[in-house]
Write a structure and sequence with these properties.
about 55 residues, mainly alpha, Atp Synthase Epsilon Chain, Chain: I
């Protein structure tokens, strides 16, 4: 990540990066496949982050 960002923006981008992971296999197995996808999942080409931080 580049250095020319405010700390608030860096924090928001880091949180989005950590959130953008798949659901663990044990969770899928434990819930009998009711929970399969991550609602926060995002692809960098398809959906952009809506950050309004300067």
């Amino acid at each position: 990540m580049g250095s020319m960002k405010s700390s608030k923006k860096k924090t928001a981008l880091g949180a989005a990066l950590r959130r953008n992971k798949r659901v663990p296999v044990f969770v899928i197995a434990k819930t009998n496949r009711r929970i399969r996808t991550n609602p926060h999942a995002r692809n960098w080409r398809r959906r952009k982050l809506k950050l309004h931080i300067k």
